Amino acid sequence: MAHVDRQTWDVVVVGAGGAGLRAAIEAREAGMRTAVICKSLFGKAHTVMAEGGIAASMGNANENDNWQVHFRDTMRGGKFLNQWRMAELHAREAPDRVWELETWGALFDRTADGRISQRNFGGHEYPRLAHVGDRTGLELIRTLQQKIVSLQQEDERDSGSYDAGLKVFQECTVTRVLKKDGRVSGVFCYQRESGRFFVLEAPAVVLATGGIGKSFKVTSNSWEYTGDGHALALLAGAPLINMEFVQFHPTGMVWPPSVKGILVTESVRGDGGVLRNSDGNRFMFDYIPDVFKEKYAQTEAEGDRWYEDPDNNRRPPELLPRDEVARAINAEVKAGRGSPHGGVFLDVSTRMPAEVIKRRLPSMHHQFKELADVDITAEPMEVGPTCHYVMGGVEVDPDSAAATGVPGLFAAGEVAGGMHGSNRLGGNSLSDLLVFGRRAGLYAAEYVAALRDRPAADPRDIDAAEAEALRPFSAEGGGQHADRGPAENPYTLHQELQQSMNDLVGIIRREGEMAEALERLAELRVRARRAGVEGHRQYNPGWHLAIDLRNMLLVSECVARAALEREESRGGHTRDDHPDMDRRWRNVNLVCELADTRADSGEADPALGQIRLSRRETPPIRRDLLELFDKDELVKYLTDEELSR
Ligand code: FAD
């Protein structure tokens, strides 16, 4: 066995975004020696990019708001496929998590009378998003980091070492969760800069690795969203659910090509921005689906009045849930009513004075000026859908965030599935990170405290993980075996994967195209076995990408297989050949598991699918929660059996 450094911790948190940091704080406060490991620099997690705000029913902007209304909105947004217990916990606990952030030093924007200001967002009945301009994620991460530093200062006072109870390993990537006798024993990692391998042994691992957007060509996500946590869970034997539900945010930049996909925050619409097509029509009024008809304004005048008088008017349809707006934009462009660069127009310039735009949307103003030379205080933006968020993820116990079937494995944040059902409402991710990040840290600590003995990492698994990581440098990867074909460039493979997912499993899906996507994925899997890199292990991005490809191919197959299986349209899954929502699918989760345990050892035939798909009925929604809805509304969603029950 090659020598690999090993360190022992109680809890390892993989990911230093909002979910990971909140989990780490909780585990450390419960007395656990906690390691946090992240691919990028500490502080540069995806969470930092969050713009619009954190959804929590504090009732500051409208006192009618409460957790029940938030729960209702979340279930409606997810088209009732949400893991209802998660949606309940989330709605109940989000306000406490926001207050807590404030006690840790977060500085939110204020109302005129000094309370935390809350803004409107799509699908939320009342203004609910606590925010800091359009840079809320930055403040959230800054506050959590500050809390971590203060805990480290405490540790230094008590033990003489800042890292004694809570240590951050930045720019390090986890490639395997290690197990012994079915239980988690640690993680295998490499340092991105030096290429050195090391193992963090721990009986509990919290996955908080975020999403999968880099499998798609047009995305708002940054380089580190390669579905690592999803793949790590699968490879460790934990199932994923809801993977067919990928959110295409309606408003990403469409021009210039180099910035295509970068997010244009929903706050623009929340603060009054309107969508128009090339004929100048506010087309969203033509796209209000039946299930939402009673809740949205039918005329522009009513929609406009709502901003001033929300109690006596209905909201404008620009604030429908994201899946509805994205589909509408797609349809307008397809019908030839798009903007010059293939999007539609989003306008705030005619809706608010320039100084208000600059104050409320400073990042958007800067982003468009710098990247597209567009002054949003004077002219409309051009926007179109961009792959933004994955609703699917690791199947977890709703209360404890424990992954199904793998003792010691936990998951929180975007990598976990269930909470958002088929479509996430804006603002519900930051609150999700805090609510379930805390729970994951708490229950991971409880799990460790209750253990009688700790599983040790098996040296054979460490060797196997090392061999797997080094494969792109090997003779096979390097192309010296002529019978196995020439080496493949990981960048080419990545581009082809992104193009396939974009074209064939994107915003509008068809059976034949998804079947073709699965064929292309099979071919890419074979070629990815020959992904070869040159040079050495010191900072070698090509090598890192070759490793990440395994993860992107796994999660892409999950998305494609589940999307092909679900023969209806719901939330973030739109089938051209099955355009309606079908109540019979309401209580069906599609579960993805690793098909062949030999794939675990890298021995499976990569041309065969790696994912086994099965259907699982979701637990019935608790009666008191159902009673929060009108019966007329439930009839639109629930199956006949559920209604008769
Ligand atoms: P992240 O914050 O992405 O953190 C993931 C961490 O995992 C990172 O530290 C990464 O380095 C690490 N990691 C990944 N793989 C590995 C590995 N193999 N080994 C080690 N570390 C690894 N949501 C809202 O609620 N409100 C908003 O206003 C909002 N605005 C958004 C704006 C943009 C532009 C984007 C892209 C998203 C926005 N979202 C918003 C969504 C929200 O930001 C994300 O869903 C959320 O931040 C995810 O947090 P997380 O903690 O799960 O993961």
From TrEMBL:
The gene is sdhA. Residues 10-430 form the FAD-dependent oxidoreductase 2 FAD-binding domain. The keyword Coiled coil does not apply. Transmembrane segments: none annotated. Residues 494-592 form the Fumarate reductase/succinate dehydrogenase flavoprotein-like C-terminal domain. Keywords: Flavoprotein, Oxidoreductase. This is Succinate dehydrogenase flavoprotein subunit. It comes from Streptomyces albospinus. The keyword Acetylation does not apply.
